[in-house]
Amino acid sequence: MSKYWSPIVSRLKPYVPGEQPRMANLVKLNTNESPYGPSQSALEAIRMAAGADLRLYPDPLALGLRQSIAERHGVMAEEVFVGNGSDEVLAHAFAALLKHDQPLLYPDISYSFYPTYAGLFGIDAVEVPLNDAFRIDIADYRRPSGAIILPNPNAPTGIGLPLAEIERLVAEHPEQPVVIDEAYIDFGGESAIPLVPKYANLLVVQTFSKSRALAGLRVGFAIGQRPLIEALERVKDSFNSYPLGRAAQAGATAAIKDEAWFEETRARIIATRAELTRELEKRGFEVLPSLANFVFARHPGHPGQTLAAKLRERAVIVRHFAKPRIEDFLRITIGTNEECGRLIAALDEIL
Ligand SMILES: *Cc1c(COP(=O)(O)O)cnc(C)c1O
């Protein structure tokens, strides 16, 4: 606290990202990064961008990247908005689209950046409880609201909604913007992007951080009809006209064109997820059905906090949330087969 702070600063509850510890021989399964490197062509494009042109500002419209994303997803470049990680895209969506007289709705167990952004932008929000199976029931969203945001698949549960359910939610709320945060969609879910031409209220947000293995580059995007995208552009150009540098634009453009690496790595992660789920279940864990690059699991005989601490002693880092209903769960990122093997070996010692 300081007398120099703007009044809002003392009221903020900043998001706490998963830690990035520097330990030798660490098995890092806490922040849903890809265990496989980025596309080689993306790395090459980033190296090429590191030249004398860096003295020049980047394209403020990021047209090349937006065009490539548009082609990949069958929309127009004008229907694509890009930002410095999907966290920034989400922040602009909160400011541009999600603040209304009626409350914003999102699940009670969900991405913990949502309450943070609601606080930052002074948005009145209502948390809608997941049902007893930790699932989103879209019937629970039939209540007065100004806007809705939810991740599909949800985080940290990993549970996905079928596209028909997403469409029903979007169709049932024609007066409200509905934002679907698809950070994990490429690991088995079905994207809502094909619904964009049909629904003026739908905004779909995706990221290069997970399935494209570029968390360090900071690139995310949103797809929606022009009026929603224009709202994001108005906020962006009132905040930072150049959110993506030259290296980020070049690297992400090359990454989205590398379909082969994308398919190979996500298939490996999906296969390892099935294997890890089986191994955890054999040891008595309850594992929620995941469509993401992580699993959410609890053991009836061991509190989550203790398990996380004991894994840490063995240089295996997973994510634990000290929150009601989920305090006994661990969120475990799908690593390589070798990393998941080391997790299982550590669990065998602990259990
Ligand atoms: C990881 C994640 C994001 C954002 O990631 P960026 O690295 O900022 O693109 C957004 N939503 C959810 C639910 C996530 O888990």
Automatic annotation (TrEMBL):
Gene: hisC
Keywords for the protein's UniProt record, in alphabetical order: Amino-acid biosynthesis, Aminotransferase, Histidine biosynthesis, Pyridoxal phosphate, Transferase
Signal peptide: none
Chain positions found as N6-(pyridoxal phosphate)lysine: K210
Molecular function terms from GO: histidinol-phosphate transaminase activity
Occurrences of domain Aminotransferase class I/classII large (ranges): 25-347
Family: Belongs to the class-II pyridoxal-phosphate-dependent aminotransferase family. Histidinol-phosphate aminotransferase subfamily.
Organism: Sinorhizobium kostiense
Protein name stated in the entry: Histidinol-phosphate aminotransferase
CDD domains: AAT_like
PROSITE patterns, per the entry: AA_TRANSFER_CLASS_2
The protein's Enzyme Commission number: 2.6.1.9
Catalyzed reactions per annotation: L-histidinol phosphate + 2-oxoglutarate = 3-(imidazol-4-yl)-2-oxopropyl phosphate + L-glutamate
Subunit structure: Homodimer.
Enzyme class, UniProt record, top EC level: transferase
Needed co-factor(s): pyridoxal 5'-phosphate
One Pfam family, short name: Aminotran_1_2
SUPFAM superfamilies, per database record: PLP-dependent transferases (SSF53383)
Coiled-coil parts of chain: none
Annotated pathway: Amino-acid biosynthesis; L-histidine biosynthesis; L-histidine from 5-phospho-alpha-D-ribose 1-diphosphate: step 7/9
